[in-house]
Amino acid sequence: xxxxxxKHNRITKETNKLLKNKNNSLQVSTIxxxxxxxxxxxxxxxxxxxxxxxxxIASGSTNFSVLTCKKTADSYNExxxxxxxxxxxxxxxxxxxxxxxxxLDKPFDMLIDLTNSTEVYNNLLVAKSKAKxxxxxxxxxxxxxxxxxxxxxxKLFVDELIKYLIILKKL
Length: 171
Fold this sequence. Notes:
Mean pLDDT: 82
CATH architecture: 3-Layer(aba) Sandwich
Helix content: 25-40%
Distance between the termini: 47 Å
Shape: globular
Strand content: 15-25%
Strand order of the largest sheet: 3-2-1-4-5-6
């Protein structure tokens, strides 16, 4: 139990350090072509919403990557792409998965966090991402995102996101 608390504290410190050094200049000057999506295993996000996002936002499957946050390492991943769970963090709170490093190092035009979570792991993932524009739910740390959408439902979140991107002329 104490080790878990230590791990969470280390991850929180790392996230705060990354957010303190964050470049606050909004980089949304281009049309969105590459998208990274972070989802939770077992959430209401499904293939239909994934297809809708992919069709509306990204121009092809190679420009659309999904990172699934799983509860256990051996559970089924319904989306193709990288996966992460508690075991992918060392006891010191550092990431150990090359697959996740690759996802976070991609300079996506937009990162969409559909986890609707305030867990330290999810916050670190968003903070470490090299995405130019980050979108998430409004009930999370406001320092993480460039655009926050107030929604209780992932489906409504996706609809609102598409609406805002059209208004901003990013699609």
